[in-house]
Amino acid sequence: MLNHRVIPALLLKNGGLVKTHKFKDPKYVGDPINAIRIFNDKEVDELMVLDIVASKEGKEPDYRMIELFAGECFMPLCYGGGIRTMEQADRIFNMGVEKVSIQTAALEDLGLISEVADKYGSQAVVISVDIKRTLFGGTKLYRSATSDTDKENWKTFLTRAVDAGAGEVLINAVDKDGTLSGPDLELIREANNELDIPLIALGGVSSLEDIRLAVEAGASAVAVGAFFVFHGPHRAVLITYPKYEELENLFINEINGRQTK
Amino acid sequence: MKLMEDRLNRANKMRKMCSRCIMDTSAINIRFDENGVCNYCKEFLNRSGSMLNESAAVKEERLLRLVKKVKEVGKGKPYDCIVGVSGGVDSSWALVKVVELGLRPLAVHMDNGWNSELAQNNIANLINALGVDLYTHVIDWDEYRNLMQAFFDAHVIDVELLYDNAMLAVNYQMADKLNLKHILAGTNQSTEGMEIPSNWNWYKKDKKNIKAIAKQFGSVKISSFPAIGTIDYLKYDLIKKIKWISFLDNLEYHKESSLKHLEAHFGYKRYPYKHYESIFTRFYQGYILPEKFEVDKRKVHLSTLIISGQISRKQAIEIIEEIPYASKQELEDDKEYFLKKMGWTKKDLEQYIKHQNVEHSVYGTEIKIIQNLSRIKRQLKKIF
Question: Can you tell me the ipTM of this complex?
Answer without folding.
Answer: 0.91
